[in-house]
Amino acid sequence: MEPHGDLNPDTDDLPLRANTNHILVRHYVLDMTVHFDSRVISSSVVLFLEPGSGVRTKAGAGDDIGHGTGDGAGTTDAGGSQERFASGFQQVDAIEDDTKGLEKVHGVEERDKAEFQVVADTDNIQSSHLWLTTNDSDFTLVLDCCDLDVSKVEELDITSVSAMLGLQPSERSEVYSLNPQAALIQRLISMPSSQWRQKHQLFSLCSRAPGAQDGSSLHFHRDKWSLQVRKKGVTSPQDFPRAVRICYETRPTGGSVRWTKDQDNRVCVYTAGSPINNRALFPCQEPPVAMSTWQATVRAPSECVVLMSGEEQAVPTEDGDTHFFIWNYYVTMAMPASTFTLAVGHWHQVTAEIPPALESGTLHSVSLPLRIISCSHADYPCRFTEWSAWSQRVIPHRVFSPVCLLQKAQIGVLKLLPRCLAAAHAVLGVHPFPRLDVLIVPAGFSSLGMASPHIIFLSQSVLCAGNPGSGDKGLSLCGSRICHEIAHSWFGLVIGARDWTEEWISEGFATCLEDIIWAQAQKLSLQETTEQFDLKALLRWRRLSDELQNSREELQVLRPNMEKTGQVSNSGSSTVKHALNPEKTFMQVHYLKGYFLLRFLASQVGEQQFIDFFRLFVKKYHGQLILSQLTSDQLVMLLELLLEESELSVASLCALQRTYSLQNQDAEVRHRWCELVVKHAYAQAYGDVEHFLVHDQAMGVYLYGELMVQEDAEQQAVARRCLSLVQEEMDQSARRVVEEMVL
């Protein structure tokens, strides 16, 4: 296994240890039971894995396995009986009876008990009994994990699921014969999005398959930040099991979920948007590039409601053994595991009705495209390709709240939500997700709001203090916050940052769009909109100025990794700089600096043109992860514009060189950089000019002339020195031209 190097868990940087360049989780199947009495969630998670294409495989180009896309670019006790585990996803009835061996899913036979004994040294270190029998030459699956008590890790016998036999190739290759499990999982993962329902049924059936009966087992070791899994004798990701089940329990103090009481003094639990994300809820691959789909079964007391990231509204069924209710959710769009969200509590729903004015289209609406757009993302059932989605201005939505806040939720959230959804559609177009739940979370929630796929958490602080007859007075905070969180559906969720340190991509865009969408929802005039924008900008400038004066400089940088943004180790591991620093949690610099950058751009091109840019950006990049680095063509344009400036300070040139690592860019970029160095006599980078003239002779001819025309002795010496080094090997025509300029 690759060493973790300088990933130091004692600093304020968060380690992302998953080896996503070696192997990726393509789908998670979770089975959870919520125990309020002990404040734990007993659970199993099944990982469906695909080895990365960057790692050499034994399979040939036409074989059934080894087609990964690893671009680096994704024992329960009480409540965990085998019967309850087998009862999940009951809607799968057409092929469900074909599964073999379900009675052994959670059972451990006597001969196997020694294999799964757990040796626990400390709270942060845990190993299976036979972990020490493995060695570093065995391939290691590394998952991000903390504060979980793992009881068992096993390979699943997918060949026992008779419904999977339909995925067998008509002509079995040698590779299939050698590893039918891998071939079947690869074919399952590769099923097209048009067959997503069948695909999820098969994932569900496979997740309940018995453990592999080949006499071997999987061994695991858990430290503070990771869970490591090996199969003795398996040395490559291609030979590693493709379907792995992990049985575990969360801890009451685990950082990913918060056990508390709501405003009615009723117990509840929810994912609180912790800096460690979901690694204390289930073992997962946390780097954003590990895009995956998931489906989950959650058992909770019958009086509770379970809300989760999921594309369809769940209809609970009763578990006959425990009288708990069973809730099933799923997603078909691959997203980072950090976006998985769960909330279980005694909340009440207030039914929302869409006002006729919104349904009939009296608000300004985005026009329908002349043709359905062509998407650039991986295959999933995308709403941007559905005609019906383009005209759906208000998606189905629900609001949940404690009883004591129902009236305030009705006055504020319920009243504003359809207006804000319609306004967001008018500004940005298709809603990326088909439905939305909004939950008023407990008072201890440390933010005004948090957006996840299909669900928004709102703080009680945004609720208006008015009464039913007070009109829109006091709704500004609630409305603008709803608009901010809705904007995250586009910027933050369906378009995400490939490097978590670039929070500004999500928060800066959402803050900017918050104002635009809220003004649209209020139906403000142009003058009223301008005045509201200006006032918001002034308030934010004061807030940013105060923060810059009263916080450490290293926490104020939008791209703390600088030119290394987006870079990971050979295995795919990395760190999120300052993610564990409690001071950073409450800073708004990434909101405000990003907002002011975007407002500046809007002032340059015009408000409507900038909104048009947002729409085009969404159409092009939805379903993808992005970085803020400039492309080479953009860098060329930037440098050419800077060449038009009469003066540039040494500090500016130094920052430019350091930020964009210009000496390491392609020849077009380096050519403009050298021109800039010569024009402003930036002597510290004359070495870059010399290197360009020697190694890029095809492009450097006229750079000699620029060095000579400045009549700077040092620059002229550079030109003569470079000519003397290369003149013997130069093309005769080029040599004649250069000699005329230099000699």
Quick summary of this structure?
With 743 residues, this protein is an alpha+beta fold. It is built from 20 helices and 25 strands. Helix 8 crosses helix 9 and helix 9 crosses helix 12.
Structural class: alpha+beta
The number of helical runs is 20
Low-confidence stretches: 1-9, 54-116, 359-363
Mean pLDDT: 84
Biggest β-sheet description = 7 strands, mixed
Distance linking N and C termini: 59 Å
Shape: globular
Question: Helix content range of the residues, please?
Answer: 25-40%
Query: How much strand content do the residues show?
Result: 15-25%
- The radius of gyration over CA amounts to 29 Å
Spatial sequence of strands, sheet with the most strands? 7-10-3-2-13-16-15
Total strand segments = 25
Describe this structure as you would to a colleague.
This protein has 20 helices and 25 strands. The protein is 32% helix and 19% strand. Helix 7 (406-428) crosses helix 8 (476-487). The protein is globular, with a radius of gyration of 29 Å. The chain has a seven-stranded mixed beta sheet with strand order 7-10-3-2-13-16-15, covered by helices on one side. A five-stranded antiparallel beta sheet has the order 4-5-8-9-6, with no helix packed on it. Strands 18-19-20-22-21 form a five-stranded mixed beta sheet, covered by helices on one side. The longest helix has 24 residues, at 526-549. It is an alpha+beta fold and 743 residues long. Residues 58-79 are annotated as: Disordered. GO terms for molecular function: metalloaminopeptidase activity; zinc ion binding. Pfam families: Leuk-A4-hydro_C, Peptidase_M1. This is Peptidase M1 leukotriene A4 hydrolase/aminopeptidase C-terminal domain-containing protein. InterPro entries: Aminopeptidase_N-like_N_sf, AOPep, ARM-type_fold, Peptidase_M1_C, Peptidase_M1_dom, Peptidase_M4/M1_CTD_sf.
